[in-house]
Design brief:
By secondary structure, the protein is mainly α. It has one domain: Arc Repressor Mutant, subunit A, CATH 1.10.10.10.
Length: 95
């Protein structure tokens, strides 16, 4: 993914994404490489350490959400289930 694509996907300005990528690169989570066909374009990819950190974060978020959902009663869970198609449509509009 290019820096521009990442900025667009995350809905942030290119300078902001550049600062974030620089910090992630410094910590070994991403790798920045010049595009093979256009050296002005930087491509970003996750390192093995970045993949592990992402997996840990997603696992913690999933566990947190599961714990919070377990506190809801059946009616509240049903309401959430009814809202899922609307939420999914909202997310589809973002891509």
């Amino acid at each position: 993914m290019t820096l521009g694509q990442l900025a667009a996907q995350e809905m942030v300005t290119p300078p902001s994404v550049t600062r974030m990528v620089t910090a992630l690169e410094k910590h070994g989570f991403v790798r920045r490489e010049a595009d093979a066909t256009d050296r002005r374009i930087a491509r970003i990819s996750l390192t093995a350490g970045g993949r592990r950190a992402l997996c840990r974060t997603r696992t913690r978020k999933t566990a947190y959400l599961a714990q919070r959902l377990s506190q809801l009663d059946a009616a509240q869970l049903a309401t959430l289930c009814d809202a899922l198609p609307i939420l999914e449509r909202l997310l589809e509009d973002e891509t």
